[in-house]
Amino acid sequence: MKALLTAEMDESLVPELDCMLDVETDGWYVSNELLSESDLIRKMKHKDVLITSYDKVTRNVIENCPQLKLIACTRSNPINIDFDAATERKIPIIYTPGRNANSAAEYTIAMMLNIARHIPFAYKELHDSNSLIEKEVQEVQREALKEDITWGLGIGSPYIEFKGSELKDKTLGIIGYGQIGKKVAGLARAFGMKIYVNDPYVQESEAQDVTLVGFDRLLESSDFITSHAAVVPDTIGLLNKAAFERMKKNAYLINTSRGAIINEDDLVLALRNRTIAGAALDVFAAEPLSAGHPFLCELDNVLVTPHIAGATFEAITNHSKMIIEEIKRFMNKEPLEFQYKK
């Protein structure tokens, strides 16, 4: 069987594909660039398997690749592939759920620590040359001070301005208790946190060492709230003005899942009015952020990063292994473990 590999892959594992398939590489795998629709059709004309990460596999592509038998996508949600067109041709789509669950969970905890302890704001303070002194003055001070020194204890000093909160003994509210939510809970317990979970699809038997609660109780009782819910009609804009008003004034909101879960305009108002203490966000309503967005230009109680929670080398290795094993099952006519179904 012939295959086109355009996916982001662990190069050390690609020889395993070569042992099973006649593989041609192009696109993202070679140049970090996507193939156009016409290029995909041209490249796939006489190939059986497409292994992709980000290319748009449209109905036109699927209908004009007569030998196509399998589409392998290295993402945890293959939204770039026309599911209906593939289904009509009985072409299975395999994907990699949970490939970056560890990455996203660890990043969520990192965001919690950073916003709770004001780490990025303290870092920016130094890089903006605030709270610094001239080297000559420092030499004089060093002679007069003991080893255990501080940057100052008065009003406006870093010790006062950036004093934060510990995670220990705080309550973490987790919205959505899938693979990532469960990993976040495990890490948070190691910090001594109490875990509340809101997920209508989770049974008590699945929720060991956490407490299942209603949405309102989670909002009202949590010191940190993190969203790991799937985007469905019921969760779009779930965290809105009414939700923020139910949260504690000293609570922090974390979002490393999908921007659609949050009503962004309502969050801007909540942060501006100090309805909640702050937020740490890796995903947004529109990406990239606009240059004049309040998260960047106005608010001093929000930490933002450019959708990188799942961006680790280990996640690439994970999805490479999953795809290779799934292709082996397909070629051996064994049941597929990771076939995508809506």
Describe, in plain words, how this protein is organized in 3D:
- This protein is of the alpha/beta class.
- The protein is 37% helix and 13% strand.
- The chain has 15 helices and 12 strands.
- The chain has a 7-stranded parallel sheet with strand order 8-7-6-9-10-11-12, with helices on both faces. A 5-stranded parallel sheet has the order 2-1-3-4-5.
- Helix 6 (101-116) packs across helix 10.
- The longest helix is centred in the C-terminal third of the chain and has 19 residues, at 313-331.
Q: Which descriptors apply to this entry?
A:
single chain; 342 residues; alpha/beta; Rossmann fold; 2 domains; seven-stranded parallel β-sheet; five-stranded parallel β-sheet; 12 strands; 13% strand
The coarse silhouette is: elongated
Number of domains: 2
**What do we call the CATH homologous superfamily of the largest domain?**
NAD(P)-binding Rossmann-like Domain
* Poorly predicted parts: none
CATH C-level of the largest domain: Alpha Beta
Please count the helical segments.
15
Q: Mean pLDDT, rounded to whole units?
A: 93
Strand order across the largest sheet: 8-7-6-9-10-11-12
Q: What's the total number of strands?
A: 12
Order of helices and strands: EHEHHEHEHEHHHHEHEEHEHEHEHEH
Q: What's the helical proportion of residues? A: 25-40%
